[in-house]
Give the backbone structure.
Amino acid sequence: MATDRRKLIIEAAAKSFSLFGFKATTMDQVAKLANVGKGTIYTFFKNKEELFAEIVSSLVNEMKNEAEAVIQPGLPFTENVHRALFRLLEFRSHHQLMIKLIQEEKEMGTIAVSEMLQHIENEILTYIKQKIEGASSKGIIPKTDLELTSFLLFKMYIALVSDWEKSHEPLSSEQIAEIIKVFLLKGIKN
Amino acid sequence: MATDRRKLIIEAAAKSFSLFGFKATTMDQVAKLANVGKGTIYTFFKNKEELFAEIVSSLVNEMKNEAEAVIQPGLPFTENVHRALFRLLEFRSHHQLMIKLIQEEKEMGTIAVSEMLQHIENEILTYIKQKIEGASSKGIIPKTDLELTSFLLFKMYIALVSDWEKSHEPLSSEQIAEIIKVFLLKGIKN
DNA sequence: AAAATGACTAAAAAACTAAAACGGTCAATT
DNA sequence: AATTGACCGTTTTAGTTTTTTAGTCATTTT
């Protein structure tokens, strides 16, 4: 009971959004799940969308942490880029909330969800851009167009991790690393 | 009046599908547009879907012709791959019927339309695969996984031609050729 | 006789409506 | 000062009726 009510609400909302998506989650339900009066939610969050934004923000942080955790300073830059990107896309296709949101966008076209997915994509792109920029300034890769490079890398990974398996056997992390090495990084490196 | 009724029907259907999409096109409307009794349509086509399939089949042929027309035997293989792919994707984002079908899939999720778009994508992929296979057997590029190579090339072009311009200035054919040369073809060639 | 037709039908979609559920508020309660 | 849930205007849903549609086929036209 002494637990922070804000935390309770966030946990309840995260669970509900993951289970039922944005539209099918009601504020009454979140209140009941959090053992909190509905009005209390509105002392912490302006409205449903802002509560949703909070949950998605945590999700993005979680993704960034996962990506950071997999980077090892000793390894070559290209290997680390692969590890981080693969982890991000793996997260994207395994995490409950992500799966639900992607499904909700496809099946119901909920606008708030589309916007959030777009936001998440932008966050990932910015993250990649930063990583590449860091290496770029150390002279490891040439200053090609950063925006374009990260965009292409991201699209490539989406294609290899998510799109490919819609009509073929999934590719392992090692296979994808090899493919990227053969196709893409030859172009970036030196 | 002496004109072939089958041709009249196809022209009317093509116009109507392009203007209103699959669902919003009615057989009565096609009949009226073709100056033909509705029953006559059914002497040439089993049902609405088969009429749709006929129109899409023409579209695919048209696309292949456009791609072929742009290939010049004297040019290097990679240049021709670029010309063909760019033309195909350009067609995809400028042709009336294509635009309408992509819109209808996104906004209404019409199943018949999704299936047709998938079919068109497969046709393009097969076309690319054939082109690359031809060059591959002549020893110009190594026998990497054909399926994967054509898949990646296609995804790359979709990303550069269609996705990029959703949040940036569109890229010209020359820019895309340069990007593909720098990033991808260094990996394929030799 | 063969080809073309449009009135017809069963099935699907759209329009309508009443009832339920929803997000958000705020006077009452703790 | 913090929390609450009954309450309100609006939106969604579920159930029903009406309209539209794909496809057929007896009749008409060539």
Summary: Residues 1-45 of chain A form a domain with the Arc Repressor Mutant, subunit A fold (CATH 1.10.10.60).
